Amino acid sequence: MTWDAVADVAAAVCFVGGALLALAAGVGVLRFPDLLSRMHAGTKPQVLGLVLVLIGLSLRLRSGGAVWALVLVALFQMLTAPVAAHLVGRAGYRTGKVRQDLLVVDELTEAQDRARAADGDDEEPAGRT
């Protein structure tokens, strides 16, 4: 077996694995019951699935310039997906979309209460019970 054949087989395995992870992310976003579970399903397997597809593509293309471009795409995806998930989770928490009964530790409520007390704002935010 030549190097080209091995690289093509590895690329195919990466493509299939990445596609299955992207499918799992989509199913998880549709089927999970609450915001935090959906957020997890939308970020973790999606990023790993994209990285696997990019690895498969770089194995298939075997071009230096294309591989560096794919590395940049993977790097930016890994940098931006956690930030976006954090912002979505924070917005969902502030608007009352997070189920409080599922939280084991809730440090954000304490921090928000301290900030509200420091500002002198005694009003309860909309959506929280």
TrEMBL record:
Keywords: Membrane, Transmembrane, Transmembrane helix. It comes from the Bacteria. GO terms for molecular function: sodium:proton antiporter activity. The chain crosses the membrane at residues 6-30, 67-89. InterPro entries: PhaG_MnhG_YufB. Belongs to the CPA3 antiporters (TC 2.A.63) subunit G family. PANTHER family: ANTIPORTER SUBUNIT MNHG2-RELATED. This is Multicomponent Na+:H+ antiporter subunit G. It comes from Cellulomonas hominis. The lineage of its organism: Bacteria, Bacillati, Actinomycetota, Actinomycetes, Micrococcales.
